[in-house]
């Protein structure tokens, strides 16, 4: 109205928008630097090259460039609108809809926030489901540690057996200790040894059709210490310590059902390809244990006593009556008394072993949940800005309605209702996106968590409730501001 050039108005709005976005981008880069410090203690150690994660100049430059482009894109539409106006802005009625572009952008934020929240909820259910899986052993009241005996010192079988006998005797003499045992490859470690085998009363399978079993060497009272159930027969005892033509072996239920489906396994013989064909007789059948991870089904496994099959690297477990972590100093002293030159590795409770076995899954859950919360916050901020602008642009009509008898509560409900209608429409789009991408996202998440259903009613309902609550809170300040307008002052300004 005063003669400003339209090009100058466009430049002014674009510069203002660009400045805001660049400053916000710089602030975001600073926050990212702080977040990386926390990330070092947050990310599980199984994530490769964690120590190489850092901010560098190309990353920062790209982030700032994206912020600048976003600022230009966001400022372009209002800049063109301001340049094309007559200079005497018109007031819009309260009953009319929000500008389509603004409503569409806010709705898109809400829809994408729903998709991320649903994905995070599905992953949360998957992690809870994994932790609820029976690993095949008891985790309460157990503490474990690993020992690697030097080959030069423990090359003789008798010396090796004497060490473990003395160590278990010392551990079981500690107050509050019920039993102790050790295994060559610990449960949930993902490590192990395997070999082919076949029942001795059947011919060996042809090449390429062999069946395999995990091989575990145990010492002490391993199965009872971990609470692995004995299903049939007995466990190893003194009579199994001497070598014989037929090794005593304890097999898992999976191996017994695989080798002799529907038949008793006790007293049956196995031919195991372990350094040459070894004939073993089954003396007991125990429950299946998940040695790989919680999401992998137990495989066939057989157990040999350390007296007949030496193993220098073992993971010991100690069953306690109280807090297992409290016994850590006593366990270190006992190991040092047995051999002060052997370091203890990974001394921790079995509960932490189970928890750490899903560390990568929990990290992925935390990342997606963080993205979902950020998207939720962005949607709430966008909705807050849209409703605030709506009330500000319609002050005169709101004041007129109040002057003509509209109640403040009715005005506030109209503002909140507008926000809830916008969010409801966006949620319908978000539900459709989640359903359409459910198979793709389920396959991607399933590669880490196993079979996952993205669109679960409980998860979807929780995400929808969270977004509706966010919409209610985001629109409440604008609704209160509209209800508190003074009709006389508003009309006088007009």
What does this structure look like?
Helix content is 53%, strand content 15%. It is an alpha+beta fold and 494 residues long. A 6-stranded mixed barrel has the order 3-4-9-6-8-7.
**Mean pLDDT value:** 85
Element order: H for helix, E for strand: HHHEHEEEHEEHEEEEHEHHHHHHH
- As laid out across the biggest beta sheet, the strand order is 3-4-9-6-8-7
Helix-strand makeup class? alpha+beta
- Output the number of helix runs: 14
3D shape: elongated
Helix content: 40-55%
In whole angstroms, how far apart are the ends? 18 Å
Strand percentage lies at: 5-15%
Alpha-carbon Rg, integer:
34 Å
Give a short account of the largest sheet. Answer: 6 strands, mixed, barrel
Q: Which segments are poorly predicted (pLDDT under 50) over 5 or more consecutive residues?
A: 88-97
Oligomerization status of the protein chains: single chain
> Quick one: how many beta strands?
11
Could you name the key traits of this structure?
alpha+beta, 15% strand, 6-stranded mixed β-barrel, 11 strands, 494 residues, 53% helix, 14 helices
Question: How would you concisely characterize the structure shown here?
Answer:
The protein is of the alpha+beta class. The protein has helices at 6-42, 57-84, 100-131, 157-172, 222-226, 253-259, 328-338, 350-356, 359-393, 395-403, 408-436, 438-449, 457-483, 487-493; strands at residues 142-148, 177-183, 193-199, 211-220, 230-233, 247-252, 269-273, 277-286, 301-305, 313-320, 345-349. Residues 88-97 have low confidence and may be disordered.
């Amino acid at each position: 109205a005063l003669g400003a050039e339209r090009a100058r108005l466009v430049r002014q709005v674009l510069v203002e928008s660009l400045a805001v976005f660049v400053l916000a981008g710089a602030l975001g880069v600073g926050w990212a630097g702080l977040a990386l410090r926390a990330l070092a203690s947050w990310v599980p150690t199984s994530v490769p090259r964690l120590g190489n994660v850092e901010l560098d100049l190309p990353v920062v430059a790209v982030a700032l460039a994206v912020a600048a482009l976003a600022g230009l894109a966001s400022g372009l539409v209002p800049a063109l609108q301001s340049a094309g106006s007559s200079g005497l802005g018109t007031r819009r009625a309260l009953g009319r809809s929000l500008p389509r572009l603004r409503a569409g952008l806010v709705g898109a934020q809400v829809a994408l926030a729903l998709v991320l929240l649903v994905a995070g909820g599905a992953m949360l259910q998957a992690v809870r489901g994994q932790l609820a899986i029976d690993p095949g052993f008891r985790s309460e009241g157990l503490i474990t540690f690993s020992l690697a005996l030097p080959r030069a010192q423990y090359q003789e079988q008798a010396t090796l057996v004497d060490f473990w006998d003395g160590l278990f005797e010392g551990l079981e003499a500690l107050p509050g200790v019920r039993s102790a045992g050790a295994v060559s490859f610990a449960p949930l470690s993902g490590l192990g040894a395997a070999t082919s085998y076949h029942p001795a009363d059947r011919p060996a399978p042809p090449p390429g059709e062999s069946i395999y079993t995990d091989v575990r060497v145990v010492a002490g009272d391993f199965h009872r210490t971990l609470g692995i159930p004995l299903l049939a027969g007995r466990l190893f005892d003194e009579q199994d310590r001497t070598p014989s033509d037929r090794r005593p072996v304890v097999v898992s239920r999976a191996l017994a059902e695989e080798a002799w489906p529907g038949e008793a396994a006790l007293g049956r013989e196995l031919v195991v390809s372990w350094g040459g064909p070894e004939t073993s007789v089954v003396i007991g059948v125990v429950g299946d244990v998940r040695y790989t991870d919680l999401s992998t089904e137990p495989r066939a496994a057989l157990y040999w006593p350390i007296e007949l099959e030496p193993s220098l690297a073992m993971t010991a477990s100690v069953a306690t009556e109280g807090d297992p972590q409290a016994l850590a100093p006593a366990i270190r002293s006992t190991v040092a008394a047995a051999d002060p030159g052997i370091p203890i590795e990974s001394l921790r409770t079995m509960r932490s072993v189970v928890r750490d076995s899903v560390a990568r899954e929990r990290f992925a859950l935390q990342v997606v949940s963080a993205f979902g919360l950020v998207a939720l916050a962005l949607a709430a901020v966008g909705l807050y800005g849209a409703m605030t602008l709506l009330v500000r642009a319609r002050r005169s009509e709101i004041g007129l309605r109040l002057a003509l008898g509209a109640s403040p509560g009715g005005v506030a409900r109209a503002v909140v209702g507008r926000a809830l209608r916008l969010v409801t429409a966006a949620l319908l789009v978000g539900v459709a996106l989640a359903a359409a991408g459910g198979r793709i996202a389920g396959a991607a998440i399933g590669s880490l968590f196993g079979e996952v259903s993205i669109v679960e009613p409980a998860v979807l309902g929780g995400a929808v409730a969270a977004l509706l609550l966010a919409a209610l809170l985001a629109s409440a300040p604008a609704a209160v501001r509209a209800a508190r307008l003074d009709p006389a002052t508003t009309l006088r300004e007009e």
